[in-house]
Amino acid sequence: MYRSHNCGELRIADVNKEVTLAGWVQKSRDKGFMIWVDLRDRYGITQLIFDEARTDAQVMQLAKSLGREYVIQVKGTVIERESKNNNIPTGDIEVLVKELTILNEAQLPPFTIEDETDGGEDIRMKYRYLDIRRNPVKNSLLFRHKVTQEVRNYLSNLDFCEIETPYLIKSTPEGARDFVVPSRMNPGQFYALPQSPQTFKQLLMVAGMDRYFQIVKCFRDEDLRADRQPEFTQIDCEMSFIEQEDILNVFEGLTRHLLKKFHNIDIDKFPRMTYDEAMRTYGNDKPDIRFGMKFGELNAVAQHKDFAVFNNAELVVGIAVPGAASFTRKEIDALIDWVKRPQVGASGMVYVKCETGGHYKSSVDKFYDQEDLAKWAEITGAKEGDLILILCGPANKTRTQLSALRMELGNRLGLRKPDEFAPLWVVDFPLLEWDEETGRYHAMHHPFTSPKREDIHLLDTDPGKVRANAYDLVLNGNEIGGGSIRIHDKATQELMFKHLGFTPEQAQQQFGFLMNAFQYGAPPHGGLAFGLDRLVAILAGQETIRDFIAFPKNNSGRDVMIDAPAPIDQAQLDELNLAITLKD
Amino acid sequence: MYRSHNCGELRIADVNKEVTLAGWVQKSRDKGFMIWVDLRDRYGITQLIFDEARTDAQVMQLAKSLGREYVIQVKGTVIERESKNNNIPTGDIEVLVKELTILNEAQLPPFTIEDETDGGEDIRMKYRYLDIRRNPVKNSLLFRHKVTQEVRNYLSNLDFCEIETPYLIKSTPEGARDFVVPSRMNPGQFYALPQSPQTFKQLLMVAGMDRYFQIVKCFRDEDLRADRQPEFTQIDCEMSFIEQEDILNVFEGLTRHLLKKFHNIDIDKFPRMTYDEAMRTYGNDKPDIRFGMKFGELNAVAQHKDFAVFNNAELVVGIAVPGAASFTRKEIDALIDWVKRPQVGASGMVYVKCETGGHYKSSVDKFYDQEDLAKWAEITGAKEGDLILILCGPANKTRTQLSALRMELGNRLGLRKPDEFAPLWVVDFPLLEWDEETGRYHAMHHPFTSPKREDIHLLDTDPGKVRANAYDLVLNGNEIGGGSIRIHDKATQELMFKHLGFTPEQAQQQFGFLMNAFQYGAPPHGGLAFGLDRLVAILAGQETIRDFIAFPKNNSGRDVMIDAPAPIDQAQLDELNLAITLKD
């Protein structure tokens, strides 16, 4: 061992101890006759002191040569500091150095190793091993470890068994795009990397394992949106002989445990909301309920006058922005411009200021009187001093637009507090959703989700209306997990594939192993998966996942540190019976 | 929840309770007026009783229809059994059924769901979800979970932080063959799946994470020998500011903890042996030291007579087989045939029977007298009643042959007891080994292993003699882990690549990111990886890993259950800019 103590543990009680420390030079101050060095490791910072009067001249000389991020080992005596530093736990002491060894020199790092660094995202990713030395990243990784340990212990105590499922599986064109892996031993054939262990965990239920979990990497070859990664980590779970209520209880318990453990927050019972209600009230299936601004639908009280824009709209809907009646004309115009940006796509916005004394002032005063506007205020829940913002148009689109506006205002007004946690179950998701591009229905969750029994008769007549036994856990406006009660009999599974446009042959070829398994005694089962990267980020009060992943990829799916992906040797291609067909 | 209790928990104290159980029909006995059903789930078996006198006629009728592996739910009353079954924990009670629901029917399984099944390996793999219902496989998976939980908690308590490293990395032709993953977003380029997180864990040390571990899947595209898997799991660890001694201590502690926890065995200090000693004494770098039969080198006492076979041999070496002097001529001939099989490859074998009264009888009595043979007995440690078996030839080959014989005899004589655990550290491995095929030196562990400082000068003159700071943990004749102190400076790493036949450009292109990292303050570091699949199997007293993997692949790398790998769509190939060049 190169050290007797780490850089975070010495205290006033250790004074006079002879110690050996090792770590990185965070910084040094050279006053000529005295040199102070902040020595850093994962556990903290300890101040070293080299003093002409008490330190050997040769050691003194060597100390003067130390550069930032040099790796050194020192032996010395713990002494009480003259001027204490209350900001760090070791701030009462320093180590008077007797011996100094340079273990490794360091080039000047390309950015400062400080909490607030001068390095941009790109350079930090290229030198991620230096970036991780910074407290914000280091602490994110340590926090992630703590969360996963808690999750594992919590689930293990509930008799969940972690079982590793294979990474080299079979490609299924349904759903997102697979990463594939050519097989050398089976020429012309490919494995696929799992998008999730879905079918395997269901087979484990057929196998009688009863309660399964796995913290597992999953892969999707998608064009990356901001903050998506081609490889990501799931807390994947499945249970047998349960109903939806049982799953919600178990994972509500897990989430409650994490909130208590890491934030000392007690949340009794998580609220629940149907998908329909979430869409109507927040325009969103993952509403952030830390703040209000619930949607008020105004058709009944806004389509009786001569305002054609409203009269022709499928939906007129507004929100009351608290305290925003004081917004200037310029500020409101900026908001109107904001909703008209192509990313939001509204064609315009109506506003109503709820001024003091119960007076309303709106951009449509020409069409509506005070009595009309009072009704709008009532429906949107607007109070004196609030600002009502109203959008109209096709129902779904308008809800999405108003939801975007609500979230933007939530951010701007500081209503999305990072230390507040508002979990919410959204239930009763639709089974199917219409896909414009392919002109057919897709499974909203996946093809193994069971329809609600009472809705099955709608599959032929009104497929979009069939509700699924599917649920999402939403935390602070982020979907952190989702799952469903699965189909567990062959007939229903075949019916589902039929409605998803599979021929019986396609269904058999791709998922025959699962439907076959259902014929050998499959128990009722269901489960859920949490996105670990996001869960950890949100638990840490942040929304970007990148700092919670040691070596993330950029938006082109590249690891810029190791420079991957990269070309491979012709010999490798030959062995795999592959040729590249790039026409460039 | 479909049940109030599981099938393993009801006891005599539960008599008179109204309970609901769910599970699989293990078997049923129909006596006409009474039917007994063994209901099984992961937790155990509970006997159900349907009694004409006490059970509704309709339920009775339904019970008669139950087939093996049907999934059912029953409601009933716990009653005391008339004839108790002491073999199962629930054997004092049975459940008198009032209501019966068939949750799912089952086709007759293709093999019996019993501890000793009638199903062969192939059919069990195809229906692995049924195979896992059998206790031996189910318990193996549950045991694996317990071991991994212990490992995680043990290492976490020692401040090790589990950090996920990427699965989509860069191919490096050094070492075993990579599985590669074509990148759609970076046409013509490929990721590789990691053979181990080696470089990433070293970068985490450069990053200051100090103590890392990860239980992680690794991938090697090798022609599969028996009991190898293309994907396998490692307990991967790395530490900074340590020396070899520190790493051995930590992982000896972990192993000791597991042996104590799962077998209540206390092993104080693990023995250590150098690689040279292991090869000389056991002909093997992973000796099973649960039994003796150490090698005795006989050159000095066997090359002084007219026996040309011995005189011309580089090495004459023997072992004393305890109590085997009683072997018949036929048995000994069979052993001679065994060592002459091509898999072993010896050209012959000499034997000496150590008979009672201090008399020796050998197959070379023509050449050697009793005094000679007494010396052989002394050197091999043979006692009265033992049989000395002697091979000769080129030193390395002969040692390997004698080692194979020793292991075979250890098995035959029952000396390799599954409930005995004999760990051993093998240290001071050679840095390089000569590869006949490529005509150059390869790294025996990997190119990042540091040479012993005192041997570096031999790199140019006698590379095969350079010892590495490398060590293996051996348990019962199996290598369960290995590791090394790493190189942590660019100059030594460059020197190493040079001796492995890399041009500076190749080294830079493939491992530039690591050597670059070493220039920014790399701490001294080292680590180790345990093979989890094997560790778990050996801890369970078994040597084949397949039952400890939920969904293993066969020797052609196929998952016969899901039928992977498989061809993919032309559209997928096109998107990846790939063509298959099979000439067939």
Automatic annotation (TrEMBL), chains A, B:
Protein species of origin: Sphingobacterium thermophilum
Reactions catalysed, as given in the entry: tRNA(Asp) + L-aspartate + ATP = L-aspartyl-tRNA(Asp) + AMP + diphosphate
Domain Aminoacyl-transfer RNA synthetases class-II family profile, residue spans: 144-552
Function statement: Catalyzes the attachment of L-aspartate to tRNA(Asp) in a two-step reaction: L-aspartate is first activated by ATP to form Asp-AMP and then transferred to the acceptor end of tRNA(Asp).
Family the entry assigns: Belongs to the class-II aminoacyl-tRNA synthetase family. Type 1 subfamily.
Binding site for ATP: R220, D221, E222, Q229, E479, G531, L532, D533, R534
Name this polypeptide is given: Aspartate--tRNA ligase
Enzyme Commission numbers on file: 6.1.1.12
Intracellular or extracellular location(s): Cytoplasm
Region Aspartate, residue ranges: 198-201
PROSITE patterns: AA_TRNA_LIGASE_II
Coiled-coil portions: none
Alphabetically ordered keywords of this record: Aminoacyl-tRNA synthetase, ATP-binding, Cytoplasm, Ligase, Nucleotide-binding, Protein biosynthesis
Cited Pfam families: GAD, tRNA-synt_2, tRNA_anti-codon
Protein residues bound to L-aspartate: E174, R220, H445, R486
InterPro entries with a match to the protein in the record: Aa-tRNA-synt_II, aa-tRNA-synth_II, aa-tRNA-synth_II/BPL/LPL, Asp-tRNA-ligase_1, Asp-tRNA-ligase_1_N, Asp/Asn-tRNA-synth_IIb, AspRS_core, GAD-like_sf
Oligomeric form and interacting partners: Homodimer.
GO MF terms held by the record: ligase activity
Main location: cytoplasm
